[in-house]
Every structure is written in structure tokens, then in C-alpha cells.
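Technical note accompanying the year-one report. For the benefit of new consortium partners, we illustrate the data format agreed upon in the data management plan: each record pairs a sequence with a C-alpha cell string. No post-processing was applied to the example shown here.
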Amino acid sequence: MIGKEIIDRICFIEMQDSAHLNCLSEQLCTEMTEALDYAYDSECVGIVIKAQISHGVWSAGHNIKELPTDGHDPLAFNVPMEKLLRKVQDVPIPVVAYVEGTVWGGACDLCLSCDMIVAVDTATFAITPAKIGIPYNASGIMHFINQLGINKAREMFFTAQPIQATDALNVGLLNAIAPIDELPKVLEERFLNPFRRNSIMSMSAIKRQFRVLARASSLISSEGFERIDAYREKVYRGQDYAEGIKSFLEKRPAEYTGKASDLDKE
């Protein structure tokens, strides 16, 4: 599911499950996590995450078929997708998402977990937990708030609608966009060549600082985390969550019956 190749100290990691639209399945996430370790152990100065494209999709996000339906948290700390996101954030060399298609759901979070995003000018980005009935976790929401600002993050989560590449560039989600035939040159000249010229010790130290400082800016009280967990548990143990998964698999519109006030009930 994953291909990897080192070219002049840059590790290119490619999602190769285009038959399933590069869904972030347990296997794909595990293999990609291992590939990130491989890149660091090989003393690369940068990593590029790319994908084989099918039907114009870079990645369709979390594999809905693998979501739990037994009352367990679908985005718990130790699920493979969450481990992958933390690995991308924590691997101490720059990671660039190279996006040539549409990005859906958890794949949006994967892109935001990278240090930089380069995309074709026709790319779109959508974060869709509300469409499926999934209670997104606090760390994921903080990625969006930190990068986009709270109003744009709210728009993306509440509407679950794609935003265009130009809009994503304007709000700071993307670092660069270009037509498909110019994208490789932009990647090389603006990002990879400078990585090769710069001090990897300096870049690595700076990336570690970015990560520590980003976490420090998002600290909340233990009571706040407990409240978040309580809200999320009511969602993934509720009927709307089950209906969201069922309707997706049955390829029909969801018929949600839950109320916002249900979260207030003891």
C-alpha cells in the first residue's frame, strides 16, 4: 500500500491504494508510520507524502468500514490513524504533503499534520465528520484552529463542504498551488532544494520547537478535557453515529434523529 524512494536525501512516500481511494486504513497508516521512521533513520533532510490518484482523489480519509460500532471511540489515542498523525508531526525533519487531487476527512488532518502543503490548483479540501456523525477529537480540531483560525475551522467542520485550493491558500492551509504540470518544479525549487542546502540539525531543532510551542498554545484544563471526552462519548455511543456509518455503507442519505440538547443529558 505504500511505496518509498530516497532521491538526493529526500524520502518520497507514496500512498498506493488507489483502488480504495487511498483510504487511511489500519494497514496503510501502519505502513506509512513505518516509512516515516525509515526516512528519519536513513538521515534524509525531508519527506514528501504523495499519492497515486484515482478518480481525482488524493485520499478519501478514514476507512469508514473500519470504524468501530461497539461503543468504542473511533478516534482514540492509539488507533493507527492517530498514531500516523502524531508521527508526521513528531518526526524531526520537514514533511511536505504533495497533493494532486481532492482531500477528504481524516486525510485533511493528515495534510495539516505535515509541515507544509503543496497542491495542484484544482485540489479541494473537506473535513467531513459531521456528515458521517463522528465526534472529532480535540487534537484534530486544534490543528485546524491553529492553522486556519477559528472561523474558517468552524466553517469547514460545520458545513463539511470542500474548499477550493485558492481559498485554502488564502486562509493559510496551503503553502503553494500551481497547475499540475508546474507542481513538480514548485516542489523542488521552493522546498526540496532549500532543504538540501540548509543545516538539517538546525531544521530539526526548529521543527521540535514548533511542535512544543504549538502544544503549549493549546493547553486546556483537565476539566476541559473531561468535558470534551464526555461530549464525544455521547456521540459515538449514540444512534446518529451508527446511522452515519450505516448510511455511508448503504450509499444513501443519512436520517439523523439526535438533538443538540442530548449532549446536556446526564
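Partners are asked to follow this layout when depositing records. The chain has a mean pLDDT of 89.
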